Amino acid sequence: MENITIKDIARLSDVSVATVSRVINNNGRFSEKTRQKVLKVIEETGYQMNYSAKSLRMKRSFTIGILVPDISNYFFADVVQQLEEQLFDLGYSTIICNTGRNAEKEQKYLTILESKSVDGIIVISGANEDGIEFNFEKEIPYVCIDRKPKVQEDTVFISSNHYQGGFIATEELIDSGCSNLLLILHQEISSSSKERVKGFVDALKKNNLPYSDENNMFFVGTNKGEYRGRFKKFLDSHPDIDGIFTVNDNLGLQIMKFLLDMNISVPDTLKLIGFDDIPSAVYSTPTLSSIKQNTEEISKAAIQSLLKLIDDDESDKGKQIVIPVKLVERQSTNHKL
Amino acid sequence: MENITIKDIARLSDVSVATVSRVINNNGRFSEKTRQKVLKVIEETGYQMNYSAKSLRMKRSFTIGILVPDISNYFFADVVQQLEEQLFDLGYSTIICNTGRNAEKEQKYLTILESKSVDGIIVISGANEDGIEFNFEKEIPYVCIDRKPKVQEDTVFISSNHYQGGFIATEELIDSGCSNLLLILHQEISSSSKERVKGFVDALKKNNLPYSDENNMFFVGTNKGEYRGRFKKFLDSHPDIDGIFTVNDNLGLQIMKFLLDMNISVPDTLKLIGFDDIPSAVYSTPTLSSIKQNTEEISKAAIQSLLKLIDDDESDKGKQIVIPVKLVERQSTNHKL
DNA sequence: TTGTATGCGTTATCAC
DNA sequence: GTGATAACGCATACAA
User: Fold this and answer.
1) Count of CB atoms within 10 A of residue A29's CB?
2) How far is B130 from B132, CA to CA, in rounded Å?
3) S-S: A48 plus which of A190, B115, B194, B273, CB 3.0-4.6 Å?
4) CB B86 within 8 A of CB B77
5) What are the φ/ψ torsions at residue B218 (nearest 5 degrees)?
């Protein structure tokens, strides 16, 4: 059987194409009887809508672009997967653009997304704090996940509660007996990292623990392992450190490896907690405690807001949606697996 | 400026829409002069093709479906990323379907892909050895990566040289001084694992080392950690084992953790090598030697073959394309990082 | 070498 | 409540 169209459906169910279209889209008026009739024929014939025609006519592509810095990063991969799945169920295709944290590539992708006339764009995180340049010919709605939009009033910004994450990570260390905490983070600091830092500092304050930038914070550079010498010296000059919060799990595992290499026992001498709950957190010795982001809720919120924008409902514009995180306790903070 | 179409281009460059179309697609005859003229106007106006119209007219969606078992698996994520990037450059969108190794979900996705009338499908690996059921109304071309198609003559099958991988992994252990090797793998064995096993066995043979299923192979089940007791007993009864090849890196890291927990030193007492070269292989202590698959070449080959099929060029049908792998030496087989 | 005209499958605007 | 019909932007068969 060749491609079957609404024309065929119309003929077989003895109505006009207009009516068939109305029934399919549940839009406009028609009697219950014709509805039944048409639906039956559709069922029998196995009719499938032609989205190209629909797109052409409606001037909508039913396609969403997703901008992601690095899909081999677990958190990003997880979010993308959620987005893809949920959008798919809603009849949307997705174009996933891996920018490699490269601003130039990002611009290039943005241009092509425009040319493919996507209905909307979801921007996940990004290279810098700069926000993102959207100099489109036509206005394309977009939402941001984990990246503050440049012009906040233009759109909506969804992210985990990184502040809360930083806070409960820190309290987990304190609860497991630490009183001299260290936060390890990268030099180039994202907006989400900034929140985690705030949570860390506030948790210390709340628990009446001392804090100073020099004694309780350590920065690592981009090139792997660069910091090992520096960090050793730091530890030597701060022998009282007994708990470490790394700004993410990858860094956490690196630090754990370093401590093991130095013969420093985790969690006996030093407790450790990361962020993201990546799968390998459970393969390390000891297993790594962490903070888990709710990627499903993040994605749900992002999609909901984006669809509203696409629908010209601007009530979410300027909003910031914050999703709670969860503590995952493991051996590195003295818990059983 | 509103959407600009070939009609506008035609008017502005003083030719007909037909000619504009010919120039754009470099198809049919036209003089160099008109080519220049049209291209100039296109450049100036920033014209962008409407893919919905093109699709409707050409009865092609310029969309490829990608079926993947689990995108949070590093190897799969890597392949998907490559596919996406390369297809994007070729003007194709992709729909990524994460099946979660669930046959039912897979069928459902397949149906929707058909309804979205994708031009082709790339199937990556899968739950079982059964191949995949393609009971489409219309024939959709597809290629398989790492999963033998059920009817091999129908399509093309691309995979790494898993045999070679198993072979050189084994020889790496032998080269670093091991003479009593163990292969650890999962109960449910994929076609690619099978090849790795063959390579393992043949490498032993070639090096005149003993081999028997009972002494040189250990199976683990699906639920994590199930095997720990059994494996301990196995090691106790096989004290001469001095090198382990795990069928993938995740398993390798699990085993490494187990050995550390048992106070068995890697690589001093026991050498270890995995497969896939996942990122965390470099965060473990010791770092894990591995076999790296060439995802770029795999993707390139898959796309090339698929596009041929879409173009009704059936010369690749029935072919099996094998991509070489590479050894990555690290501490777990006695190498410096 | 170029132009005219038709149709791809769908939705939306009118009429009735 | 329903039907005719005109668009949507593009590629192509056929004329010229």
Assistant:
1) 6
2) 6
3) B115
4) no
5) -135, 130
Task: Check if residue B5 sits with its Cβ under 7 angstroms from strand D.
Answer: yes
Residues contacting B337, CB < 8 A, separation 6+: B282, B287, B330, B331
Query: Which one is predicted more confidently, A104 or B79?
Result: B79
Closest residue to B84, CB basis, from A49, A81, A96: A96
CA A136 – CA A110 distance, rounded (Å)? 8
Half-sphere exposure at residue B213, Cβ-oriented, CA atoms within 13 angstroms: 1
Q: What is the rounded distance in angstroms from the CA atom of residue B65 to the CA atom of residue B237?
A: 49
d(CA B132, CA B127): 10
> Are the CB atoms for B116 and B55 separated by under 8 Å?
no
A29 touches strand C (CB under 7 A): no
**Is A56–B61 a contact, with Cβ atoms under 8 angstroms apart?**
no
Residue nearest to nucleotide C6 (CA to C1'): B57
Calpha distance B72→B74 (Å, rounded): 6
Contact between the CB of B189 and strand C at under 7 Å: no
CA–CA dist A181, A178 (Å, integer) = 7
- B135 — pLDDT class (breaks 50, 70, 90): low
Going by C-alpha positions, the residue among B64, B331, B147 that lies closest to residue A94 is B64
- Which DSSP state fits A71? T
Q: Kindly state the average pLDDT of the residues A7-28.
A: 95
Q: Quick one: tokens of B286?
A: 């010791």
Put the strands of the sheet holding B142-145 in their side by side order.
B93-98, B63-68, B120-124, B142-145, B156-160, B320-323
Q: Cis before residue A210, ω within 30 degrees of 0?
A: no
DSSP B43: H
Out of B71, B93, B137, name the one closest to residue A116 (CB): B93
Instruction: Please give, rounded to a whole number of angstroms, the shortest distance from the CA of B89 to a CA of chain A.
Output: 10
The answer to whether residue A96 neighbours chain B at the CB level (below 8 Å) is yes
pLDDT (tens digit per residue) in B145-186: 998 877 777 889 999 999 999 999 999 999 999 999 999 999
Residues 6+ away with beta carbon under 8 Å from B312: none
**pLDDT tens sequence across B234-286:** 999 999 999 999 999 999 999 999 998 899 999 999 999 999 999 889 888 89
DSSP string covering B2-15: ----HHHHHHHHTS
With bands split at pLDDT 50, 70 and 90, how would you rate the model's confidence at A97? confident
Q: How far apart are CA B146 and CA B130, in angstroms?
A: 13
